[in-house]
Amino acid sequence: MSDTNDNQKLDELNADIQALRGQLVDLQGKHGKLSGSDTLGSGDAELLASLRQDLVVVGKKLAKIKEDARGLEGSLSMIAKHDLTKKIDHCSTTYQQLRKNVTAIRTGPAVEVGLDQVPDYVAPEFLQELAEKKQEKIETLAITVKQMNQIQGRITEKLDEGAEIMDDVENGIVRAHGNIDRSVSRMKLFQTYLKRNKAPIACCLLSFIIMIIFWSSKAFCEWGLTWQCP
């Protein structure tokens, strides 16, 4: 970096990061005192409330450091930028883990807090966390309901298609039976005609077979089989 002003800002930022790391170490010490106890006494409840307040302050400082670092990114060398990012990531990881640990103490099944031991302070960060979790659950439920409605719609659509196919099959069967009945009736009429005109028996049988093949093939074709329609 060639700009003296940028060098000064970087030094100040590194000093802020170092101070923040010291605060995180102190908070980890407070957390260690709380996590070693199965129940919360009045003093522990006060310590937990203080720890929550300190986490809010540290969170704001960490956000400010990240904002200042973004303002310096354009003027930093690759090495300086990498070193700064590494320090900030370490602080951020420590902070997030500490928040998680404090939440576990607050909601853990082994913690027993009496009515006279409940702290009178609720951190805004905790309330915001609850609101975010509630919103996430609502959004997840809405997505699930939407997906179920889509699946139900597809099932209904397939059922309707199946009903239409069954109607077509039933109509084809009815038409096929009608054609067969008509062919049988015509065979009888033709047989009667041949008897009256005393045609040779071979001619009668041949004509009868041809007419059966003709009308049966047409009926089966309309019924949905793969025969060639005459």
TrEMBL record:
<keyword id="KW-1133">Transmembrane helix</keyword>
<keyword id="KW-0472">Membrane</keyword>
<feature type="domain" description="T-SNARE coiled-coil homology">
    <location>
        <begin position="128"/>
        <end position="190"/>
    </location>
</feature>
<dbReference type="InterPro" id="IPR000727">
    <property type="entry name" value="T_SNARE_dom"/>
</dbReference>
<feature type="transmembrane region" description="Helical">
    <location>
        <begin position="199"/>
        <end position="217"/>
    </location>
</feature>
<protein>
    <submittedName>
        <fullName>Qc-SNARE 3</fullName>
    </submittedName>
</protein>
<keyword id="KW-0812">Transmembrane</keyword>
